[in-house]
Amino acid sequence: MNLVSEPSQHLRCRGGGENIGDDPERESSRGATCVASGRQVNTIYSMSGHADFATYCTELLAPAGKVRCKRMFGGYGLYVDDVFVAIVVGDALYLKTDEQSLPRFQVAGGRRFEYMRQGKQQGLAFWTVPAEAMDSPVLMQPWVRLALDAALRARAGHPPSRRPT
After folding, report:
1. Which of 42, 49, 104, 148 is 20 to 30 Å from 156 by CA-CA measure?
2. What is the DSSP pairing of strand 92-96 with strand 112-117?
3. pLDDT tens, 81-138?
4. Are 112 and 34 in contact (CB under 8 A)?
């Protein structure tokens, strides 16, 4: 089932030089070893279905700014105005949190993004939003704002790295 039939051109996800949805028949065997919803996921999945969900997520975040989507690690990274604020893995959207915003996500029943690395469960500071926030961009906006603020605070705490010239 396609969640988005025709994504807006400025919301197309990119990665490896391709827009998502370029080859709906392509499948990937790079299944994520993710403990997203209490169970480990390591399966072959259709890129088309997950690409459609990632595109849907970009539309949810769009009122917050210019959204860019990039394939990464078997999922997608979402950027709002070039600030990394979310990851999409399978059918789950995780937004960036920090010490200040985390309690809001916890009280709302969010789940932390977790994965297995070298046989050990690891977690990142990305959490799911309440189910109703996934229904509309208007309901998503307070959560996106929290994620943007957390990402900007993290960016302010880390000076940009200098590349040797």
Report:
1. 104
2. unpaired
3. 999 999 999 999 999 999 999 999 999 999 999 999 999 999 999 999 999 999 999 9
4. no
Measured CA to CA in angstroms, residue 91 lies from 70, 71, 96 at distances of: 16, 14, 17
pTM of the model: 0.69
| Burial profile 10-34: b = 16 or more Cβ within 10 angstroms, e = fewer | ebbbeeeeeebbeeeeeeeeeebeb
> How, if at all, do strands 13-15 and 67-72 pair?
parallel
d(CA 110, CA 1) in angstroms, rounded, equals 25
Query: What confidence category does residue 165 fall into, taking pLDDT thresholds of 50, 70 and 90?
Result: low
**Contact status, residue 84 vs residue 96, Cβ threshold 8 Å:** yes
Return the structure tokens found at 14.
Answer: 């990119």
- Report the distance separating Cα 149 and Cα 141, nearest Å: 12
How far apart, in whole angstroms, are the C-alpha atoms of residue 87 and residue 77? 5
Neighbours of 80 (CB within 10 A): 22
The full set of domains in the chain, from first to last, is 10-157 (3.30.1460.30)
Close Cβ partners of 16 (under 8 Å, ≥ 6 residues apart):
71
